[in-house]
Amino acid sequence: MTESKTDYLWYGVFALLVVFAVPWFMWRDAATWAGLPLWLWWHIGWMLVASAAFYAFSLGAWDRLMATETGEGS
Predict the structure, then answer these.
(1) What residue intervals traverse the membrane (predicted)?
(2) b (16+ CB within 10 A) / e for 50-63
(3) Residue 26 φ then ψ, to 5°
(4) Confidence bin at 30 (pLDDT 50/70/90)
(5) H helices within the chain, ranges in order?
(6) In 10 A of CB 70, how many CB atoms?
(7) What's the CA gap between 74 and 8, in Å, rounded?
(8) Which residues contact 54 (CB under 8 A, 6 or more apart)?
(9) 16-25, 53-62, 65-74: range with lowest mean pLDDT
(10) CA separation for the pair 70, 65 (Å, rounded)
């Protein structure tokens, strides 16, 4: 399997999703908004970003990077 520039872009996207999934820079911060801590809002927003990234991944790169066969019988 040959790697394309798009494949490396997806590797970078998923690496960023993992690195920023835990808001370590918000630890020991007691700030709240709408009654919930900011780190919880970060997590909620980040899950939305991760969902959008996975949706975009599933539209085009899934078959190639997951080495699945596409076709009528699959």
Answers:
(1) 9-27, 39-57
(2) beeeeeeeeeebee
(3) -100, 0
(4) confident
(5) 5-19, 38-60, 62-65
(6) 9
(7) 27
(8) none
(9) 65-74
(10) 12
